[in-house]
Design brief:
101 residues, mainly alpha, 4 helices, elongated
Length: 101
């Protein structure tokens, strides 16, 4: 989450023309999948609603922060790309591991 936030809020992060949505989708795919893995219980996979909502809401907060920064812009297209990436992550398999106390 820190890496996504740093890249989203840093000045001068230039992405290739037309690739912005792909980078958003990829970042939120990884983020949502990691959240889903972290929320998995022993012997079962986690549900999909909470990790999906957490990833997307995180993106919403970051877009709001971008809107307040003079060197960044907030875009609805980015929110859509975040949701698509996070949604695809919910289709990926998750395996939980036994946690040692």
């Amino acid at each position: 989450m820190a890496g996504v936030a740093a890249l989203s809020l840093a000045p001068g992060v230039a992405l290739g023309a037309g690739t912005d949505a792909w980078w958003h989708g990829a970042a939120y795919l990884v983020l949502a999948w990691l959240l889903r893995c972290a929320m998995a219980r022993e012997g079962e996979s986690s549900g999909w609603v909470l990790p999906l909502a957490a990833a997307w809401c995180f993106g919403l907060v970051l877009e709001g922060l971008q809107a307040a920064l003079p060197y960044r812009t907030a875009e609805a297209r980015d929110l859509l790309a975040n949701a698509v990436g996070a949604g695809i992550a919910m289709l990926l398999p998750v395996r939980s591991y036994r946690r040692v106390p």
